[in-house]
Amino acid sequence: VSTQSTWGIIDSRAKENNRPIKRVTVGGPVTTKDIIERIERANPTTGTALHIDLSPLVGSPLGSSSYLNIFLFELLVVRCLRDSTSHRFYLPDDVLVFIEVSNTVNERLYAELPFAHSLREVNIEWKLEDINVTQDPMYSALI
Predict the structure, then answer these.
(1) Which helix (H) or strand (E) holds 3?
(2) What band does 47 get if pLDDT is binned at 50, 70 and 90?
(3) Which of 9, 64, 89, 106 has the maximum number of C-beta atoms within 10 A of its C-beta?
């Protein structure tokens, strides 16, 4: 439920800015090179929006909050990512970037990201009584 609603909010913001959206999901044991390759495949070009969904990064170098802070700074401020093999990726200046930080217990991941605190954030709150679960097996969120 949360991912679909978060994606819906990001889709709306991208649409408000007349930007087609490119998505990259990051999770599990990945390296900077893996992320660069995923972003390159998404091909964020001039006039687009890039949505990076940072799922918990267990078992990867990016799992450390200090490394993730550097990664976010390089991507959002310098707009250049590099890996240990000198593979580089440059993000065009006018690409609108949305970073989704996944929920963790007590928001531990977000609390450990001081760089992220300087960014504009949107918090989504849920009321259990407002959640409707579909019984339709063909519903796209279930497929």
Answers:
(1) helix 2-16
(2) very high
(3) 89
